[in-house]
Amino acid sequence: MSDLEGFGFVMPHWLYWGWLAIMPLILMALERRAVRKRGQPPAAHPVMGETQAGVDPLIHRQFRGNGFTRVVDWISEKSGVFVAFWTINAVCFYFFEVIMRYLFNMPTIWVHEASYLLLGMQYLLAGAFALLHGAHVRVDVMYNLLPERGRVGMDIFTSVFFFIFALAMVITSWTFFRNSYAMGETTVETWGIQHWPVKAMMLLGSVLILLAGVSKLIKDIALFAAMGREHQT
Fold this sequence. Notes:
This protein is mainly alpha-helical. The protein contains seven helices and no strands. The protein has helices at residues 13-38, 67-84, 86-102, 111-125, 127-132, 148-182, 196-232.
């Protein structure tokens, strides 16, 4: 860090990555402790219908998936909550930048880069959470005209295109990460922080959204079959 002494405080690289890893865990633990202290019951795991956009939750109330889907859904839920806490860091970073720039006339060399890397990783890792809660954008002009079972069938059919995209993203992300790690890639700014962890988060986010898609497909197939049996009775 000696070459950066003239820039005032510069966050060490190890502190940045370490803080991003432990800070959400600390806040999640404090949140659980506060909930227990208030005597509130733990939040219920979202049932199948509550995690799919455009489908009436009432028709899904009895469909919670199997052990695999519950584990994947739990990971998707917790990963989304984990990265959501990173937003606090961006607010604090930019507050520090404003104070240093306008009160002490010492603009930082790391705040902007730290924040956009953080928000980029947050965007990548939140995909599974968004899929779990039906937050991804889709065109549903025809979808809304279908009966309930037809909507589920449409979800199953269009999942083919989702998996093509998800698999391509996993393969591409792996290539990016492997090349970045092999060359010890860093950012081109003065801070020069490692870039390969960002590529690793891209790979992790791709795997998470792929698993979330598998979980949703399993639940859709089970629901489609169950609704068919209901119509026969």
